[in-house]
Amino acid sequence: ANLLTGKLWCTDCGLAYYRRESKDKNGNKNSKWLCSGKIKNGADSCGSFAIYEEEIKPVLYEVFCDTKASAEAMVEEYIRLYNTLTENGLLTKKIAEKQKMIDLANRKKSKLLQLVADDSITHADFKEMTNSCNEEIRIAQEEIDEMEQTAQEGEEFQRRIEEIRRVLSNAQRDVARGVITKEFVDKYIDKIFVTPSGENTLQLQIKIFTGETTEKY
Question: What residues contact residue 42 under an 8 Å CB cut-off, 6+ apart?
């Protein structure tokens, strides 16, 4: 349940950062993150250095402010894709229309059965017309199956849209109070690539969920 688990990666050795408990000089908890390669292989194995959680939180706040417009644009793109996928809400109506075609074809088959029993049509005609009805049913059912699959994908898009909207809304509320939550990091931040660029300087390449990357030092 740590804030940055799986998010921080060292470009010097290619390994993930691990969290370690730490306290400042006043005894307040201030977790620090260290490259796992450096932990395992010694201080000289990697040029990285510790990142304190309280240092990186303001940076993530800046990233959110810088990229909020991109995130909102992503929501709009999801909505456009959702509308395209579900044909602006017409998909359910089309499924119902195809089901009516199947019901009609089944009623035709019942009528044909009655006609052949009454000797009103020949067995050859009955077979031909029944096969025609079966083909109509088969094609309509295939189209229904395809549209239902598309509808399920549309529902997944809808869930994704609502999830992103919720995260953005919560993030806007939290960062306004200077709070960076684990949920925000999990949903909004994809990866943070850490590159040492001096004895006391790190370059952070922060990739958000839209695929956009922003750099911080």
Answer: none
Q: What angle do CA 212, 215, 217 make, to 5 degrees?
A: 160
Cα–Cα distance between 11 and 170 in angstroms, integer? 31
* Calpha distance 217→212 (Å, rounded): 17
Edge-to-edge strand order for the sheet containing 17-20? Answer: 17-20, 32-35, 51-52
CA atoms within 13 A of residue 39's CA, in its CB half-sphere: 13
Q: What pTM was estimated for this model as a whole?
A: 0.65
CB of 15 closer than 8 Å to CB of 39: no
End-to-end CA distance of the chain: give it in Å, rounded: 26
* b/e sequence 140-149, b meaning 16+ C-beta within 10 Å: beebbeebee
Give the whole-angstrom CA distance, residue 195 versus residue 216.
Answer: 11
| C-alpha–C-alpha distance, residues 83 and 77, integer Å | 10
Encode pLDDT of 69-101 as tens digits. 888 888 888 888 888 877 777 888 889 999 999
